[in-house]
Amino acid sequence: MFSPSTLGGIVALTLLTPLNLVFLHNAYVQRREAEPLTALSTPSSFLFKHMPANQVALEFKIDSMPISDEELWTQLVPENGGVVETADGKFVVAMYHQLRCLEEVRMAFLAAHNRPIPGRVPNATAADICLGQLWQILQCNADITLDPAVLVERNGALVPGSSGEGVDHRCNDWTRVRDVVEGRRSR
């Protein structure tokens, strides 16, 4: 048989080995998850060099962006489409790609409600892909602003909902992003 000290060492080794494996696994997973973020953020550093961190308050108003106001929607994306050129190549600032996605969904919505935009043909496939991307963007940005709950009718029942109207949200200053994209760099 084993001596008491040897038996204690075997028990300790048996208990600590699974804990070490869990620790190593967690360290590996965290490292694996962090590597793509570091790699993906490299081209974005172009914007961060030219745009100091700045946040603004955005108060949501229901009538601030009517769905059928073509002129307002056209002004959201700069003429260059949100493209910036860095030492690594040309890139589209994600905010402008996301706004173009929202435009695809808007066109599909208007067409589905018999209000198509003259001269523009909605692309159902693009709208479908864009809805998936917008869903991911909302999760990525995780706005934790608390909107007051109100009761709304849905399918004949009153359920909690929110319009978000009149509530301030903390946002990155999109006007500074546009300045950088259009060559008016903030320093």
UniProtKB/TrEMBL annotation:
Q: Which GO terms describe its biological process?
A: mycotoxin biosynthetic process
Name of protein: Uncharacterized protein
Q: In which pathway does it act?
A: Mycotoxin biosynthesis
> Looking at the Swiss-Prot or TrEMBL record, what is one Pfam family this protein matches?
UstYa
Keywords associated with the record: Membrane, Transmembrane, Transmembrane helix
Q: Look up keyword Transmembrane and say if it applies.
A: yes
Q: Supply the InterPro entries for this chain.
A: UstYa-like (IPR021765)
User: Which family does the record assign?
Assistant: Belongs to the ustYa family.
Q: Which organism is it from?
A: Ephemerocybe angulata
The membrane spanning regions, by residue number, are: 6-24
